[in-house]
Write a structure and sequence with these properties.
It is a single chain. The chain is an alpha/beta fold and about 325 residues long. Helices cover about 35% and strands about 25% of the residues. The strands form 3 sheets. Strands 7-8-9-6-10-11-12-13 form an 8-stranded mixed β-sheet, with helices on one face. A 3-stranded parallel β-sheet has the order 3-4-5, sandwiched between helices. The chain has a two-stranded parallel sheet with strand order 1-2. Helix 5 runs antiparallel to helix 9. It is globular. The two termini are about 20 Å apart.
Length: about 325
């Protein structure tokens, strides 16, 4: 549902994933849906989202519409008892996320936020490394995500009515990184620059934790940045190389010795998220233990706090 760039990548990876079939797509125009359908040799193409949500042959729907549409599109699917994998951010604010979760629970239907990084092998590798305790206490974290976007006031990234801005689109990744490693911060400082369309062009954030631990996070649509993530601990460092949110290599330095672990793949990397979601369906689950409702709520609430600091509302 929604046939932009991410949907094309997702569809390609879905067709590389065992035990599932891409059956139908929907766009706001039938022409777009039919073109997509021909490219992937699908059974059905719909020129509206309602028809897809009501198709009796559909078990699950991946939502890749603009951020501001996630709430209404997800509710429509959930009310039709379709399992929903909703692209991040699941909602433009915590109110939307809470509503989606409530409707999913009320309909006893699976809902999961599609934050694919959580399921990638390199990310789970660093989580496991930290759990060993050999790095000692974490002292600081750094994570950035930035690319130069050509300004288009009507484009998705720049139009506030479509949920534009750097924070919602890419800032979610550094925030996700900090939350998954250190948890909720005690305090948040943030500053931002803006496009003339009143969406944020860049955001700098500092999350503060006990014992003077800090997470320095940043996102921008104004320039290409390293887009790496780094954990500094007592006994060493862990660095997720560019681009840290997708399959990449990990540089481990421990007690003065450095090793590089390569996690590159012949797919984009959505296969891991898709496989996890499909297994939830097979097991009759309505919530992911890995990307839980509570985690999606915490993520959206944290982003709300950043938005409050920089004076941004959706």
């Amino acid at each position: 549902m929604g046939l932009g760039k991410i949907a094309h990548k997702f569809a390609q990876d879905l067709q590389k994933t065992d035990g599932c079939e891409l059956y139908a797509v929907a766009s706001r125009t039938l022409t777009n849906a039919e073109t997509f359908s021909k490219d992937f040799k699908l059974y059905n193409a719909y020129g509206d989202y309602k028809s897809l949500s009501e198709d009796p042959n559909v078990d699950a729907i991946y939502i890749a519409t603009p951020h501001v549409c996630h709430l209404k599109d997800a509710l429509m699917c959930l009310e039709n008892k379709k399992a929903v994998l909703c692209e991040k951010p699941m909602g433009v604010n915590s109110m939307d996320v809470n509503t989606m979760v409530s409707v999913a629970e009320g309909n006893d239907t699976l809902l999961m936020e599609a934050l694919w990084t959580r399921f990638l092998p390199h990310y789970n590798f660093i989580i496991d490394e930290l759990k060993t305790g050999k790095f000692g206490n974490i002292e600081s974290i750094e994570a950035d995500f930035g690319f130069k976007a050509d300004f288009d006031p009507e484009g998705r990234l720049f139009n506030k009515e479509l949920g534009g801005g750097s924070l919602l689109d890419i800032g979610i990744y550094p925030i996700f990184f900090a939350l998954s490693i250190l948890g909720e911060p005690d305090d948040i400082e943030a500053s931002a620059t803006y496009f003339e369309t009143n969406v944020d062009s860049s955001v700098d954030m500092t999350f503060s934790y006990p014992d003077n631990v800090r997470a320095k996070l940043a996102c921008t649509l104004l320039e290409n940045t390293p887009t790496t993530a780094k954990i500094v601990a007592e006994n060493g460092t862990i660095k997720l190389n560019t681009r840290f949110h997708e399959p990449t290599s990990v540089e481990i330095t421990l007690n003065g010795k450095t090793e590089i672990h390569d996690f590159s793949t012949d797919a984009f990397g959505y296969t891991y998220e898709i496989a996890h979601f499909n297994q939830l369906i097979r097991d009759g689950k309505t919530e992911s233990p890995e990307m839980s409702f509570e985690y999606s709520k915490t993520l959206s609430e944290t982003m709300d706090k950043v938005k409050e600091r920089i004076g941004l509302e959706y």
